[in-house]
Amino acid sequence: MGGGRTPGGAEPVWARSGRELFYRSSTNVISALLAQGSTLRVLSRQTLMPGGAYDFNGNHAAYDVLPGDTSFVFVRTGGDAVQMVLVANWLDELRHRGPK
Q1: In the structure, what pLDDT confidence band is assigned to residue 1 with cuts at 50, 70 and 90?
Q2: Which end of the chain offers a freer environment for a tag, N or C, measured as fewer CB atoms within 10 Å?
Q3: Taken in order 7, 9, 13, 17, is the CA torsion positive or negative?
Q4: Taking the domains of the chain in order of start, what are their residue ranges?
Q5: Alpha carbon of 76 to those of 55, 56, 70, 73, 97: distances in Å?
Q6: C-beta separation of 53 from 62 below 8 A
Q7: Nearest alpha-carbon partner for 54 in 82, 21, 23, 27
Q8: What is the pLDDT of residue 21?
Q9: Non-local CB neighbours of 40 within 8 Å, separated by 6+ positions
Q10: Per-residue pLDDT averaged across 7-21, rounded?
């Protein structure tokens, strides 16, 4: 399957390599292999996995591609809420909060 538009695709995310575009279509996660040149062409599409168990948001992606383009992280809601906090420069933060 090649060329043309992607009907019904949503939540597009670029692969870190820039050669693939991942998106959700219906309840699946799809990979579109791209050829770059004077025009962008879709060389092939492949269904990677079902994605129906994860949150879907038509305005922005509720998932991301991890380095290496072989793994994903998805948002999934329901059940008990879990909060994750990212602290950049955590060692400096620890020193700041530690005993003086």
Answers
A1: very low
A2: C
A3: negative
A4: 9-97
A5: 5, 9, 19, 10, 33
A6: no
A7: 27
A8: 92
A9: 34
A10: 86
The per-residue pLDDT for 2 is 43
Question: What is the C-alpha separation between 55 and 91, in angstroms, rounded?
Answer: 34
Q: Length of the chain, please?
A: 100
Tokens representing 4 are 């043309």
CB 55 within 8 A of CB 10: no
22 C-beta neighbours (distance < 10 Å), count: 22
Where helices occur in the chain by DSSP H, the ranges are 90-97
Dist CA 48 CA 23 (whole Å): 10
DSSP label of 66:
P
CB 24 within 8 A of CB 30: yes
Task: Return d(Cα 11, Cα 23) in angstroms, integer.
Answer: 5
Return the closest-CA partner of residue 76 out of 92, 59, 88, 62: 62
The whole-angstrom separation of Cα 67 and Cα 65 is 7
